[in-house]
Amino acid sequence: MALKQKILIVEDEARIANFMSAVLSAHDYEPVLASNGREARSLINSLCPDLVILDLGLPDMDGVDLIRSTREWTQLPILVVSARMNERDKVTALDAGADDYITKPFGTSELLARIRTALRHVRSGAAESSIPSGGVFRVGRLTIDYDKHWVLIDGKNVHLTQNEYKIVSLLGLHAGKVLTYDYILRAIWGPAASGDNQVLRVHMAHIRRKIERNPAQPQYLFTEVGVGYRIADEAPEESGN
Ligand code: CA
Hints:
Layout: E1 5-10, H1 14-26, E2 29-34, H2 37-47, E3 51-55, H3 63-71, E4 78-83, H4 87-96, E5 100-104, H5 108-124, E6 136-139, E7 142-145, E8 150-153, E9 156-157, H6 162-173, E10 179-180, H7 181-189, H8 198-211, E11 221-224, E12 228-231
Parallel strand pairs: 1-2, 1-3, 3-4, 4-5
Antiparallel strand pairs: 6-7, 7-8, 8-9, 10-12, 11-12
The structure holds calcium ion.
């Protein structure tokens, strides 16, 4: 039997902690619970979990401080749990080094998908902020050919402009993870990029028209309102229309 992956759940609401713990146990992970930041910090050190699920609103400290202090010495994946509407908290947490977030209330399949994505990125060791110079990314009908600098749908080049290609290839490198507006702007337009998301929104609209069947209901390029964008890393269910 394979060794189970240890997942530390940092959550002070017992109901949510127990729900996550039951889901993880049922899917062959080994959950460990911490109900405050101090306990979490000591368990991260002593237990070396494979992943941390972190509620930002802890009784004894701000979850973002825990992310910062953890990031000083380990790249252990951190999945943040946040209340709806707190977009600024999500962005702060991602910029502090969290890998991804999930919004309360969430379902079992969403939780498991986020965990799979975060663990996959550790295994593949995807480098931060470097656009790969070779290889292929494939999900559903979408292919990114990093050798040719092409994006293909059903095997046909959709002819993206250079910046459109850069955006899609960057998202593809971090497939399944949300990238913040600022992160994308700085990666594509450099450190002097203005914090104005408008240019990014225009590019995304053009990209969606080229790759999505219905740009209003995207299957590959998702908007995380107030936070950023995410590209699918698991094939969408095709309705066949
Ligand atoms: Ca809380």
